[in-house]
Amino acid sequence: MSYMDRPDISLEQHTQLRAAAAQLKSDFDGTFGAETIERFLISSYDEFADRATVAQWLPLLAQRFAKQRLKALARVEGKHNDGKPTVLFLCTHNAGRSQMALGFFTALAGDSAVAWSGGSEPGHEVNPAAIAAMREVGIDISQEFPKPWTDEILGAADVIITMGCGDACPIFPGKRYEDWDLADPHGKDVAAVRPIRDEIKRRVEVLLSEILTAPVTTSA
């Protein structure tokens, strides 16, 4: 069913989704067809429909997540390969640890590597204490949002870092895995989050020094 036929999507959201689809078609022109793009857009919309706190943001969240997933799919299918190592940070709610790791990685790696994040049980918002703690070191993660992982994102990652998702963490053949044993910042104040933040920064710095000085290799 097309999103145009969905009675649960408001007229305003239809308009926003049409604009999002048009932008994605422009972004992936020559890589994916309209049917694939719309399928990823509406499935991404459905990922957030039950837990988005502000309904009018749903199409934007769907567009951002669909774009990430389509970039990952292009890597998996060999339609795009920029040679940059790609890291996926995973935790339970994708609201604290993995978001801070993504923030540090993006700030420190610049354009030399790619990072994504996800959760086994995505929350409704990024932890406010984590946002505040990261703001103290000059990194803004307030525009991020908890999201799940998907097969194409797992398939596109070279390195998968897990942080407390336990048995729910996926096992994908041919990937380098690391498990970072870190306290969960959920329910903690900023003072308690700072040591977690600082340890994440240290580990991200080590990880970057490893993956940027030697090519990441994966097995089939």
Q: How would you explain this protein's 3D organization?
A:
With 220 residues, this protein is an alpha/beta fold. Helices cover 46% and strands 10% of the residues. It has 2 domains: 11-81, Helicase, Ruva Protein, domain 3, CATH 1.10.8; 83-215, Response regulator (Rossmann fold), CATH 3.40.50. The protein contains 7 helices and 4 strands; from the N terminus they run αααβαβααββα. Strands 2-1-3-4 form a 4-stranded parallel sheet. Helix 4 (97-109) links the parallel strand 1 (86-91) and strand 2.
In angstroms, what separates the terminal alpha carbons? 36 Å
Number of domains: 2
CATH homologous superfamily designation of the largest domain: Response regulator
Specify the CATH class of the largest domain. Answer: Alpha Beta
Run of helices and strands: HHHEHEHHEEH
CATH architecture of the largest domain: 3-Layer(aba) Sandwich
Number of strands: 4
